Amino acid sequence: MTTRKLIVGNWKMNGSLAANAALVQAIGQGLERAGAAVTVAVAPPSVYLAQVGGLLAAGEEEAGQCRATVALAAQDVSAAPSGAYTGDIAAAMLRELGVRYVIVGHSERRKYQGESNAVIAAKAAQAQAAGLTPIACLGETLEERDAGRALAVVQEQLQAVLEHEGVNGAALVVAYEPVWAIGTGRTASPEQAQEVHAALRAQLAAALGESAARHVAILYGGSMNAGNAAELLAKADIDGGLIGGAALKAPDFLEIIACAQ
Ligand code: PEP
Global pTM? Predict the structure, then answer.
């Protein structure tokens, strides 16, 4: 329901100095042809944020205003502001590197790092306190969907973020990513995705009011690709995409962006 779509590429634990440079260059060149009607962001691994941020800034200077700018996103952030948290990265540090968005609660972190709804909500609060926009990921497993619990699961995940102290729900981006669709090549049908997005929008409206809820971007993620993006992005409550595998191939990523124009 937001007017401008948001397309975010999640590179996960992929890339190298050379591969990142080639990918950013190819995306920049493609966007020069595509125009500026979509907001685009890429989320490289944290060790490459400074490199990719520098490349994006240089590309923007060259291209001027004639194309979409590409924002920098991070894949995770600490739930604490600073201190004895070895290996963690604070939101203020990301901000210093020019990061604008940060993914929190990706299902891979819920699964492999055991992140709870409470930790994810604390991360969203930290991100906002530092001036970043959290992209809060929600999604049910296949077992939960088969048990008829998909809506209940994602609504509980969203509610934990909305109710957390310090979180401004109106300044969130939400990403619905059914776990069974991530990296599997199996996408939610546009109707399945729209059903969940509409329920999340209603939940946001109950918490924030209709008008604020309309302005919260709700992204779909889960095997979105050049072949299925147009249909998904045409749905009323799908405001963009969080793209994994297809974000690593510039032609595919650009095709998805073109579908969002
Ligand atoms: C993701 O990791 O957020 C994702 C949606 O991955 P993929 O597009 O590969 O399913």
Answer: 0.96
